[in-house]
User: Fold this.
Amino acid sequence: MVEISLNHLEMDMQLLFKTRERQAQGLRDWALERTGFVLRRLSWRVSRASVNLSDVDGPRHGVDKRCQVAIVAVDGSPVVVTATARDWRSALNQALARAAEVLKRLFHREKGGRRSQRVLIPHERGAGSTMGHG
Assistant:
């Protein structure tokens, strides 16, 4: 397990990388950089993000590279997302995209619920128009 804290650009987010797979260990720096990049806009709401890479069925080939991203928000809310793909880079990108969407929804709900309501003004036939009515 590798632990890195990012404290630059007002990012105070702890990033963790875990794997037992020898081939995945070479992706540590990229995975941590990618995680920090994807979560940078939400970093003030995230206290810790953990990336765990594993190989589901060992040396066999196929869709067996799993990435689990576990995030703890500053309020303690957990978000855990898992993605499986043919390679760890794809699995990480999929898991991060899903995790970011979940975090955005979570934080949006905290701010006050639903999306801002649109006010629709009904179009009345004939009101203000004389074309074709007459």
